[in-house]
Specification:
The model has no long low-confidence stretch (mean pLDDT 78). The termini are far apart. It contains four helices and five strands, in the order H-E-H-E-E-H-E-H-E. Helix 2 packs antiparallel against helix 3. 46% of the residues lie in helices and 20% in strands. It is α+β, with helices and mostly antiparallel strands and 117 residues long. A hairpin with a 4-residue loop joins strand 2 and strand 3.
Length: 117
C-alpha cells in the first residue's frame, strides 16, 4: 500500500491552514469598503430604506428626516440633506437601513424637482 496523501485531504489541510488569514483579509476589505461608502458629512446622505416599503412611505420617511435632494437609481435610495448635523439620527429614526456617501454610491440620478415630490 502506498502512504501518499489523497489530493482532496491535502487541499483541505491547506485551506484550514490559510483560513484565518483569508478571513482576516476579507473582514479588513469589508471594513475598508464600508468605511469608504459611509457618508462624508452628516448633512448630505444617501439613505437606503427597506425595499419592501412603498415609494410613498419611503418619500415620507425621507421628508421627515430632511429635504429630499435626489432619488437614487434604486427606488428605495433617497439623497437627503439638512442644515444641521443630526440628519443621521433622524434617518435612523425614520427607518433607513443604511446611510451612504451619495457621491460614491453611483445610485443617485439628477437632482429632484421639489415641485414633483
Amino acid at each position: 500500500m502506498s502512504s501518499s496523501v489523497h489530493p482532496a485531504s491535502r487541499a483541505r489541510k491547506l485551506l484550514l491552514t490559510f483560513a484565518p488569514a483569508l478571513a482576516l483579509t476579507f473582514a479588513s476589505l469589508g471594513a475598508a469598503v464600508a468605511f469608504e461608502a459611509g457618508p462624508r458629512t452628516p448633512r448630505q446622505i444617501a439613505a437606503v430604506f427597506p425595499p419592501w416599503w412603498s415609494q410613498a412611505r419611503i418619500l415620507e420617511a425621507a421628508r421627515d428626516a430632511g429635504a429630499i435632494a435626489a432619488i437614487g437609481g434604486a427606488r428605495n435610495v433617497v439623497v437627503v440633506v439638512a442644515d444641521d448635523d443630526h440628519l443621521p439620527s433622524r434617518l435612523n429614526a425614520a427607518g433607513a437601513l443604511l446611510q451612504l456617501n451619495p457621491t460614491l454610491t453611483g445610485l443617485c440620478v439628477e437632482p429632484l424637482d421639489q415641485n414633483n415630490v
